Here is the input.
Amino acid sequence: MVQVSLGCAMQSPWQMVTGGVTAPQGFQASGVAAGMKPSGKPDLALLLAPEQAVCAGSFTTSVVRAACVDLCAERLAASGGKARAVLINSGQANACTGDRGLIDSQRSTQALADRLGLDAEAVLICSTGVIGVPIPMPTLLAGLDPLVERMSPQAGAAAANAILTTDLVDKQVALQADLGGQKVSIGGMAKGSGMIHPDMATMLGFFSCDVAVELSLWKAMVSRAVQRSFNAITVDGDTSTNDTVLAFAAGATLDAAHHLALEQGLTEAMQHLAQAIARDGEGATCLMEVQVVGTRDDQVARQVARTIVGSSLVKTAVHGRDPNWGRIVAAAGRSGVAFDPDAVALWIGPHQLMQFGQPLTFDRDAASAVLRGETVVIRIRLGDGPGQGRAWGCDLSDQYVRINADYTT
Here is the structure.
């Protein structure tokens, strides 16, 4: 389990369990093959939260946004974070589709709300797939009845499978902890494989938690967790039109003394899925983790780490198993963060390649062997400040070009 720093050293009380997004009490989900994908694979999912749930969202920073993104943000703002359900369709991004995009999103949520006995304002929608392609509404509407009929507290896996596009594997997580004698669960599911870059990208993430949290506190927790997870990954440097993270919380009140541990669990869950997205990057053969220490604060450390892990030259060097440390240092130098080049130290795995800004003699074959692992860890120290941060990505292979060259053909 990934350990995270939240400003103090604390051992994680969280343990992996099964159940995915429906592991927390009171949450239900479903996933069906409605026929919106030519492949016939599952393409329509639903997550239903208990009454009194609050929801916090994080959305793409792109100015070219799908209508569903704006609809989610507007409904959460208008309702004070009160939401009960989210409908997810896979295959069509419904972005750049003009007025039809909003009309179809509103129509879809109203139709689902009618079946669930909810106000339409309590239903959110997320879409993923090819930009410029609208939702095939007759197909989606026909899929709503079986979607609602199959809702179950055990259907987290079905929902996680129905939200995928180019992903090779589904992405789920469930954590559980005893916080002051209260059993607390956090669940999640996500999708994403390409068009992934900090400030989120073609990715969707959905989280559930079975405790009651005041909305402003929950929003702050979700925002910080997103910064340490989904906004710390990159596959190809492209940010998308549909990126959304929605996190629901509903249940018994948790003593405020355990709020820090709750945020730690939420961050761990998000980091687990963020790393899964990076590991499943289109054409990827390994997960890259860049650790930066010695900066003035954590934010700038993450900025340097994101720059390094997003460098095409670094990513191709890793794919070629070439311990070309010059590319790593050059990427750090253009990150926009000031540091003393003479203070730089650098490691690939256990092998130190630089000290005090100067190259060291190292075993090139051994360092190259590290780059052949499933997870490649690069660590760079830029000074003696307290800041530290991590970012995740993947290598860049010729398969990435092939997958994306053929994406719509």
